[in-house]
Design goal:
about 280 residues; alpha/beta; Elongation Factor Tu (Ef-tu), domain 3; Rossmann fold; 2 domains; 7-stranded mixed beta sheet; 6-stranded antiparallel beta sheet; 15 strands
């Protein structure tokens, strides 16, 4: 019998924790142990999460492949499926199929300094790559992480951030657009305002950018003005994905499908796709 490519595997929620305001992280384990043992993925890939009776949604995997026996998803409750997922608790069973997409380059960027620029929930897919790189620390130079959110309560993965900041040859800079509670002592401004505060070797640095579409747009423009090569700016085009299999047509950019050919693209590749770049970067 031919396997149904749309059928999800059953997974059990082993942990559901509040990550930030409006964001929860779910630790999942496959109910079928054989499926779990065979499951592999790369940082930057995503899966389709099914809430039975509600629907499914594409969600990036935030855990790292070095973490065995489970996977983690960080989810903002902003749509019908993700709001339903937020109501789930430890022990509940949901569906998961994947992984899908191309994932971030890893072997290809070894030997370089790495710059991560993230906004809001955009740190979730990058977290997978960051932890993978720190697990193989000797393969990379300086790792800089610039992260921002609209206000402090929206900053995700604070425990990870504290740990990354204490690791060798690493740098973590945080910012918020506004600090209404007046308890914030860090930088105030958009995440791009952190770029002048870090020293970057343009010839030997690869930048990974993930966040809201408008933030991606302006950060890429800032990086280009600084002198970054177009092939050294890597971003994700996760908006509009639906089926994950290139069947529904929701995520096409020119002749490419984000869910199949992406969601990870270099800026150079996006420019080659032509008219799709502005449409998807600005989320119109």
């Amino acid at each position: 019998m031919t396997e149904n490519i749309y059928a999800p595997h059953l997974v059990t929620i082993k942990q559901a924790r509040d990550e930030a305001e409006g964001v929860k992280t779910f630790k999942l384990a496959f109910n079928d142990a054989a499926v779990g043992e065979a499951f592999t993925y790369r940082p930057g890939q995503f899966g389709e999460v099914t809430i039975f009776g509600v629907g499914e949604a594409p969600i990036s995997i935030t855990s790292s492949p070095v973490s065995k026996g489970y996977l983690e998803l960080a989810v903002a409750g902003v749509g019908k499926v993700t709001r339903a997922l937020h109501l789930k608790q430890q022990g509940d069973v949901i569906g998961f199929r994947g992984p899908y997409g191309n994932g971030f380059p890893f072997d290809e960027v070894q030997g370089n300094d790495i710059l991560f620029v993230a906004g809001g929930i955009g740190l979730a897919p990058l977290r997978s790559l960051i932890n993978q790189m720190f697990a193989e620390r000797d393969k990379f130079g300086k790792i800089s992480i610039l992260y921002g959110a609209r206000y402090p309560a929206l900053l995700c993965f604070r425990d990870d951030i504290d740990r990354w900041a204490g690791l060798e040859n690493s740098e973590v800079l945080l910012t918020v657009d506004t600090a209404p509670d007046n308890g914030w002592e860090g930088n105030i401004g958009v995440v791009g305002s952190l770029l002048p505060k870090t020293r970057i070797d343009l010839e030997n640095t690869v930048a990974f950018v993930c966040g809201p579409p408008i933030m991606i747009h302006f950060v890429i423009m800032d990086l280009l003005k600084m002198g970054f090569g177009e092939d050294r700016i890597i971003t994700t085009m996760e908006r509009r994905m639906e089926c994950g299999l290139g069947k529904c047509g929701h995520c096409n950019i020119g002749e490419k499908y984000v869910c199949l050919d992406g969601p990870v693209f270099s800026y150079q590749h996006l420019k080659e796709l032509g008219e799709g770049i502005e449409l998807h970067t600005l989320g119109k």
